[in-house]
Design a protein that fits this description.
The complex is a heterodimer. Chain A is mainly α. In chain A, about 55% of the residues lie in helices and about 0% in strands. Chain A has four helices and no strands. In chain A, helix 1 packs across helix 2 and helix 1 crosses helix 4. Chain A is globular. The relative contact order of chain A is 0.21. Chain B is of the alpha/beta class. Chain B has two domains: about 240 residues, Peroxisomal Thiolase, Chain A, domain 1; about 150 residues, Thiolase/Chalcone synthase (Peroxisomal Thiolase, Chain A, domain 1, 3-Layer(aba) Sandwich), CATH 3.40.47.10. Chain B contains 14 helices and 15 strands. Chain B is globular, with a radius of gyration of 20 Å. The chains are: A mainly alpha, B alpha/beta. At the A-B interface, helix 1 and helix 2 of A face helix 3 of B.
Chain lengths: ~80, ~400
Amino acid sequence: MALSTEEILAGLAELITDETGIAADAVQLDKSFTDDLDIDSISMMTIVVNAEDKFGVKIPDDEVKNLKTVGDAVSYIEKAQA
Amino acid sequence: MPAKKIVVTGIGAISPLGTSAAESWTALLSGASGARPLEQEWAAGYELPVAFAAQSPVRPAELLERVESRRLDPSSQFALIAGREAWADAGSPEVDPSRLAVDWATGIGGVWTLLDAWDTLRERGPRRVMPMTVPMLMPNAPAAAIGMELGARAGLRSVVSACASSTESIINAYEHLQQGLADVIVTGGSEAAIHPLPLAAFASMQALSKRNEDPARASRPYDVDRDGFVLGEGAAALVLETEEHAKARGARIYAEVLGGSVTSDSYHITAPDPEGSAAARAMLSTLTNAGLSPADVVHVNAHATSTPVGDEAEYQAMRRVFGEALEGVIVSATKASTGHLLGGAGAIEAVFAVKTLQERTVPPTINLENQDPAIPLQVATQPTALPEGDAVVLSNSFGFGGHNAVVAFRSA
């Protein structure tokens, strides 16, 4: 069964916290990975690879640059798992 | 004669004997051994011919924030722990970042990271190989971890010379301070190579003791029954500083660094030159460059790993340097307690040499039950008082590749 937006956000927040130490409640849909959360490219790739594993989806490298905000990533995962 | 006085103002360590320099030193004086059986899950999966090692009492990741430890190989985790302790011990000096440097060594580097990534690649494919793999496995990663922590901008330098690495780093730190490249340098070394592959490889070359039934008595330098070294792990750090800088900030001074010397055997890739002439020259030129003579030396923290060949070759080298005066030199082989920290060995032994001077106590060499008659050194088997007066001590390190590195310290 596909996960809801909230469930994906919570799962993604967990991965981000694990990688960066950023508090899970700071991970919100409108936050930019680079400007708001200060996540560097290496951490971003780690989070992407872990997200692929966690949600059973593929996120091609070319797509990663389009994932500017947490919301972008959540909707990508939402569509990809459908 | 050197232009500047260079001093030690801080020390730190995490070793098989404890999670700090003080804990490690106290355990060393008590005659403890850090060697114990490998009870980890990963060890059970292999029929390793050597099933023990001298292990840190605590995994280094447990002493760091989770986010920090995820991005650091254990060799860098150990480095950061020891580096932080030494820095705090030095009073967290305020230094212009452009006058602060790091000279840090490892013998092997991020072997856990490399081999875990290889397993991941084979089992799960290239996509699962983590992007932090390269910056975690590179041998300069421990230097970079300390440098980033302290904001050091006068250079982070890593020398690689196997088991001589961290003594060579301390010598380099001394020389960089003499050259005026920095006012303060954090120096030392770390290693985290207790992994089935290095264990299998060292065992395969017959370098390790196979005393599986009695790990605590396996590392026995100078004993007739020595049969190889015991693999250890951990890190040790020293803060070196010009005396001028240290005095200006009112720092506590542990000891003076008299510099050191590096020579090479170019004899065999692993075996020491049995004549020990290049090793002897490293000791002699260390003393000569400092304006001293062999008669000034009261104590040597020997390399002495507990291999049949190595311990005797070092003795031959010492006899060349000291001649009859060798009888007046009290020798310690602290690898009997710590095991062999490879790229961290010279650093932990330098920390012990500094403590020896500070507390005027030579640490014991455990497990010496029947001293090899071919090595008639004066070995301290109990904590032993240093003779009165100005004291000069040497710390020797030798490494595969024929590297010889010797550093000298004098009481403050």
